[in-house]
Amino acid sequence: MVFEGAEKKAEVVISKDYISKHGSLKTWPRERWEKLVAASNAQIMSEVHNDKLSAYLLSESSLFVWDNRIVLITCGQTTLANAVECFFEFCPPENIECLIFERKNEYFPEDQPSDFYTDVVRLNKHLNGKGYLFGEEKDRHLYLYHMNKEFVPPENDVTIEVLMYGLQGESRDVFNSEKQSLDNLRRLTGIHEILPGYQVDDYLFEPCGYSINAIKDSEYYTIHVTPQDQCPYVSFETNAKVNDSYAELVEKVIKIFNPEKFEVIIFRSSLQEFINLPNYKIKKAVKQKLSCGYIVNYCQFDDKNLLKQESSKIHLSDEAKVLNV
User: Fold this and answer.
1) 292 is catalytic
2) Is 181 a catalytic residue?
3) What is the helix, strand, coil percentage profile of the chain, to 5?
4) 224 an active-site residue?
5) Is 49 a catalytic residue?
């Protein structure tokens, strides 16, 4: 059995005018979110809420909803562009202040119902957008498309993604065990305490695989684990306001999963330095300012024991490749 863990992600921010006329996105009925998620070929499995944030655990990743923003993450053979178009049925594009669409390189791209370029063709029917490639198409990479509209993110608006390949050591055995339980997995990994004080909703898939959503006020973190040897992949994402460097948080995540290689992607409204981590070497680093107001830091890390390149050959770039989309 194989499963495509690499994810697609859409983040959408709507205008204050829409909220004043139609109310908060958090007031939308569950049936509307079910339709949106079903459009991507996924289902809602469970949910947790607080006054500022709703988190839906999906059969293929997660959906987060604030008053004026959503983050929808899907994996497997999902059709995320369909879900974005479904969102436009309820909130037309003229009400969109910011939209960012990401797509990670897949293990099995031939099995996907679409690719980044065909997704962008659909999005461009509704929006004026711009596309980027972070990394190399023949290697690990991230495609990013954003609505080409001026937007000023809040000063404390930060998102960090840690995308991991090749689980090693105990983590590989823990997540691959078919006789695992949630309580035992939590005890062995400490995964539910990466950030303290969060309300946790998690699920252990059969025969293997794991997902967790955790929320606290307007902050979240989410983890999705595809542990199969043919396609090992783990994603961690959060908007938590931890500190300026985020290195300590990344180290905590890396310690749990012990990946062979990984990528760190940070979205922020202001400049920041690349993360430095012991025992890992930066293979590629890209910093790109987007016209929608965010600055993206993209870093590829490899285990120092696995990296055969000389330091002088490591590529440090000032910007991503602009795609003709």
Assistant:
1) no
2) no
3) 25, 40, 40
4) yes
5) no
